[in-house]
Amino acid sequence: MSTLDRSQTPIVDALLEWVATSHAPFYTPGHKRGSGMNSLLKNRWGADVFGWDLPELPGLDNLQAPSGILASAQALAAEVFGAQQTWFLVNGSTAGVIAAILATCGEGEKIILPRNIHASAISGIIHAGAVPIFIDPEYDRAVDIAHGITPEAVKFALERHPDTKAVMLVYPTYYGTCSDLATIAEIVHSYQIPLLVDEAHGAHFGFHPDLPPAALAAGADLSVQSTHKLLGALTQSAMLHVNNTSRIDVDRISRALRSIQTTSPSYLLLASLDAARQQMALFGTELMSETIELAKIARSKIAQIDRLSVFELNSPTPGCNYLDPTRLTVTVTGLNLTGFAADEILTDKLGVVAELPSTRHLTFIISLGNTRSDIDRLVAAFTELATNHAKDKSLELPSIEPPTKTLTEMAITPRQADRSRHISISIDEAVGKVSAESICPYPPGIPVLIAGEIITIEALDYLRSIVELGGELVGCSDPDLETIKIVSI
Ligand SMILES: Cc1ncc(COP(=O)(O)O)c(C=O)c1O
């Protein structure tokens, strides 16, 4: 039984003391507790918040080597999130994902991961000099969504690459879908290597039985959570948790984080992590019950609106064993609108702003900060959209599918591609050349090219179709795709 008092907030308490202490400040930051701050901000934010923007004063702590209040707050977080050790992050899950790779893979060492991994993992691979082995995620044609990867795909990849040093999953995906992590963990552990999980969108999972199981509880050795995305923490605040210190070298994690995080972390962010953890420790189940209830109301009311459909998981499918009920994806093509067009109307005319518009649908994050009136507004906006903004002209959306590659072989590593000379060439001459760009269309969010891969005709045809559809290509130097950067050999 834990001896920690979950109601404590060590960071908030120490900051409060400093805020209340009269003194002449001769330390950073330059605004000196707000007095040097532009009144433009002071008038709008209120003067008080700046008093909390403090550096590592006596009694506060050092994020690079925590031994006081930060160590205590991280220990409290580890206990609440079911970890052996937790690190607070001030550069989002981005920093945690990079650190996880740096701490488990060295130069020339292999890591298995899904192609629809976040860009931060590609950065981690470049920093580490690791060799990625990409698995195609399961693609759901019916909704144009990429899910997770299957245990079979992980087994297949490990059989072909038994010298792999780590496996990384995205769990959940942006759309809230979760793969069979427990079975994947068993397979990965049979090779005595760690399972790393990018759980950026799953910080709320451990707090209610109706949510998918949290990654650590399902068998992950390490998980990175964007506390700021789902819980009550400020943007950029995140956590990295380790559950198995025999498979993960915690000193390597600390060293990696020291090399990629600032030496001047914001105490506003750190205090928000402390407070968010305490809030979930004390009221997590209750808050999640309310959030799930709100999401249920939204799901059922929107599903009843003519020509709209809500993505649901009636029974597990490959790569999608669970769906986070608080993640709402609404398909709008029945109204002869693309998700982008619907998003514009919802935002500009109906006062509702989605998280992620895509070609066919829009995805909404419903979290502990939402209220019943937000949900009523969302339902009213969709009712109005369907009644007064649907188009008569039928929407021509050619059915295009991401090219499947199944265990991509790289020509050179992403690091070699990054360090090489890059030249821009006409797209017509690109087939067979090594891409210097990682290009990812939304939807479905699966990178079609990764820096270091050979450019294929299938990849280019697919990317061209996305551009023709008006979709967004992230990561390409020429958004019109007339030219592309390749590695100059
Ligand atoms: C799956 C996934 N992983 C990692 C990240 C990076 O998270 P952060 O914004 O906290 O750095 C994101 C951000 O959107 C994400 O969607």
Automatic annotation (TrEMBL):
It comes from the Bacteria. Residues 224-238 form the Orn/Lys/Arg decarboxylases family 1 pyridoxal-P attachment site domain. InterPro entries: Orn/Lys/Arg_deCO2ase_major_dom, Orn_Lys_Arg_decarboxylase-I, Prn/Lys/Arg_de-COase_C, Prn/Lys/Arg_de-COase_C_sf, PyrdxlP-dep_Trfase, PyrdxlP-dep_Trfase_major. Keywords: Decarboxylase, Lyase, Pyridoxal phosphate. GO terms for molecular function: carboxy-lyase activity. Its cofactor is pyridoxal 5'-phosphate. Belongs to the Orn/Lys/Arg decarboxylase class-I family. This is Arginine decarboxylase.
